[in-house]
């Protein structure tokens, strides 16, 4: 009996009031955010098994919506979306990595924040407005064609600048590439400089040091940036519609088309497939990379 009382006393003394208060203060907003994020995804998944009935839908459990999605034209749209998102992400990484490396390793510390702020400035303007601006610049009478004619490169407007793969990729890169600079910069800036100096002392050159030390340690940031770029490009609507034309369909346009004809279960099925693919990528990043490697010294000081 005495031992039981001692145990209860220890348990009660281990529960600190400030710990309970902290859990209550943090738990409520976190629970609300979790409900607002996971709740709509669960509702979308449930609706994807319902049936369309006229202008409405009825609760059911059917795989017809998924069968409709994975057959015919919509399957081609899925494959095109995967290809465009994957290749667009590779292009964005090829642009974002050198910029992030320069900012993290070559730029003076006092200039890092102003330069990063400059990459955030475009987001002050809605990306749809920026996409329409690209449409005007790339049109037959736009600044790009006018410059080509003035320089003597061509004697007539070039048609492939707009409503083409080139225009879509250009829109995707300018829309999502700045997002990718920040996680890569965080990963590169968190690398211990002593590791690089050790590689130099062992006689390795700059290229070998980058290939064997810097790049492997920056891979968590690279994969995080790839997720940002891939998710944005995979579900794109405005860029493909404005710069690719009405016939250029990506997965986001397929969802919009299903919503336009009030086929909500089909739109939910397409959205659920896209969400599952994104969750697989995020799980792979979480499974194979340590979050501390992405945040580096920032997490170490926390």
From the spread of the alpha carbons, the general shape counts as globular
**CATH superfamily annotation of the largest domain:** MetI-like
| Oligomer kind | single chain
Task: Please identify the top-level CATH class of the largest domain.
Answer: Mainly Alpha
Largest sheet entry? 2 strands, antiparallel
Order of helices and strands: HHEEHHHHHHHHHHHHH
- What Rg is obtained from the alpha carbons, in whole angstroms? 25 Å
Note the beta-strand portion.
under 5%
In helices, the fraction of residues equals: over 70%
Spatial order of strands in the largest sheet: 1-2
**What is the count of structural domains?**
2
Classification by helices and strands? mainly alpha
CATH architecture of the largest domain: Orthogonal Bundle
Average pLDDT metric? 83
Would you mind describing this structure in some detail?
The longest helix is centred in the N-terminal third of the chain and has 34 residues, at 73-106. The protein has two domains: 1-47; 63-301, MetI-like (MetI-like fold). Residues 296-302 have low confidence and may be disordered. The protein is globular, with a radius of gyration of 25 Å. Strand 1 (51-53) and strand 2 (56-58) form a beta hairpin. It has a two-stranded antiparallel ribbon with strand order 1-2. The relative contact order is 0.12. It is built from 15 helices and two strands. By secondary structure, the chain is mainly alpha-helical.
